[in-house]
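ok, trying the design again with the full structure, not the truncated one.
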């Protein structure tokens, strides 16, 4: 039995693009990516916009865009995560906190959306518990997404995606546009999930958010996973980082103010 909850083996995602009359071009979104996540581990994936982070999440969840082709293997509990297993695991053992609050249904009250997938007999009680956990007042359940603030919508997304049975949480950019307190709150929720035993894959642009919760940080660039670094190595001048790209990324942060010629 593998010690890993999730293993990606040589995962690639490509797109077919039609340019001109019949010329077909394949564009790679993710190239030969291999990665393991241990039970209860928080692993962050960082990388610039377009580096393939969301595709990685979508490949694991089996929700890639229709024009994507995928190869390689995704193992959950050491067994291939095929469409059939995904159908039973998604929303129960594997949950997804999507990049955009536009994943919420604009025409359904947020309370109903939080109750989707819950046992109908206990759904109302569970909703109350989840709302309390994420600091949402009870009456918020009767409102529609457009009636809530961005921060409240983020918390609703957590409430819709988090179940007691969850073993893997994939959070895609849960913090952009939030003020510092709200970021800290989101990170605290992710940490709580991992303390409860779930593995967390945190996708983010924000390296400091990543370092606040993750033990390891995977660095993506142009569809490739360049390196997986220990979070503790992102310190000082980054000498402990294995990969030159990770060192460059770290040193280029305005917070790290390395004067030219200081190396
Ligand atoms: N449906 C699609 N058709 C063609 N190309 C796509 C499609 N979806 C994504 N791509 C391409 O794949 C690459 C990776 O996209 P992805 O959404 O994974 O990036 P990302 O790292 O999540 O970026 P961001 O930080 O902006 O969310 C991009 O270059 C994008 O143009
Ligand atoms: Ni993305």
């Amino acid at each position: 039995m593998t010690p890993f909850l999730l293993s990606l083996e040589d995962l690639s995602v490509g797109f077919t693009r039609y340019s001109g009359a019949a010329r077909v071009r394949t564009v790679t979104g993710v190239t030969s990516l291999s990665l393991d996540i241990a039970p209860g581990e928080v692993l962050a994936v960082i990388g610039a916009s377009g580096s393939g982070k969301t595709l990685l999440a979508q490949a694991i969840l089996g929700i890639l865009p229709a024009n994507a082709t995928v190869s390689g293997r995704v193992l959950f509990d050491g067994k291939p995560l095929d469409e059939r297993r995904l159908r039973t695991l998604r929303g129960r053992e594997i949950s997804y906190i999507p990049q955009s609050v536009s994943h919420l249904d604009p025409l359904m009250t947020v309370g109903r959306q939080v109750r989707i997938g819950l046992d109908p007999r206990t759904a109302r009680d569970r909703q109350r518990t989840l709302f309390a956990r994420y600091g949402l007042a009870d009456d918020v359940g009767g409102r529609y997404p457009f009636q809530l603030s961005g921060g409240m919508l983020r918390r609703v997304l957590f409430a819709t995606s988090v179940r007691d049975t969850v073993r893997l949480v994939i959070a895609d950019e849960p913090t952009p546009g939030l003020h510092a307190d709200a970021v800290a709150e989101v990170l605290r929720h992710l940490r709580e999930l991992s303390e409860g035993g779930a593995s967390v894959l945190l996708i983010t642009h924000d390296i400091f958010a990543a370092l606040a919760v993750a033990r390891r940080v995977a660095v993506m660039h142009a569809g490739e996973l360049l390196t997986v670094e220990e979070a503790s190595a992102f310190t000082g001048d980054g000498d402990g980082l294995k990969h030159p790209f990770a060192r460059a990324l770290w040193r280029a942060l305005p917070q790290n103010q390395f004067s030219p010629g200081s190396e």
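Keeping the full-length input from now on. Strands lie at 6-19, 23-37, 42-46, 68-76, 79-80, 94-97, 168-172, 199-204, 216-221, 224-230.
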